[in-house]
Amino acid sequence: MYTWTRFGLLASLMAAGAAPAAAQAGSETSATPAAPQSASEAPAAEASSSALIARGDAVFHGPGNCYACHGNKAEGLVGPNLTDSEWIHSKGTLEDIEAQINHGVTKEESKSGIPMPPRGGSTISDEDVKACAAYVHSLSQKSGT
User: Fold this and answer.
1) CATH number of 48-141
2) Could you state, in order of their start, the residue ranges of all structural domains in the chain?
3) pTM higher than 0.90, yes or no?
4) Intra-chain end-to-end CA distance of the chain, in Å
5) Is the pLDDT of residue 97 over 90?
6) Average pLDDT for 76-83
């Protein structure tokens, strides 16, 4: 009986090990790979993520200090209004907004003569910059543009 129990245990272990291998082999041959996203689709999909926009809102009103110049509602104070369709220093694309946050606006480039330091003078991360850009981009989209 001892031999039979050991044989049963060995057979069970072999069967359990074979099942994942068979499942993996089947998935490799029968699965159809998903079409890769184009470079232009990925940022747009990421920007529309409500979680990313919410994070950007928190950065805008928190460690990014964006609200200090653009106002609590982003309608402009010292810095320009970010909620309308008029973009003063870029075309207002997600990529342009992200680049502008990263690089800032020099006094010479500024239409008002008031500079914006890179990242608004804060030490926010690259991920925070992307989130903040998504938030700002979403604000301008609400105005129907």
Assistant:
1) 1.10.760.10
2) 1-28, 48-141
3) no
4) 79
5) yes
6) 93
For 95, half-sphere exposure in the C-beta direction (CA atoms, 13 angstrom radius) is 6
For residues 101 and 129, is the Cβ–Cβ distance under 8 A? yes
Query: Which pLDDT score, from 0 to 100, does residue 43 have?
Result: 55
* Alpha carbon distance 106, 113 (integer Å): 8
For the chain, how many residues are written? 145
Rounded Cα gap, residues 127 and 74, in angstroms: 20
Record the tokens describing residue 61, joined without a space.
């009103």
Mean pLDDT, all residues of the chain = 76
Letter string b/e over residues 98-136, b meaning 16 or more CB atoms within 10 A of that residue's CB? bebbeebbeeeebeeeeebeebbebebeeebbbbbbbbb
Query: Is pLDDT at 125 greater than 60 in this prediction?
Result: yes
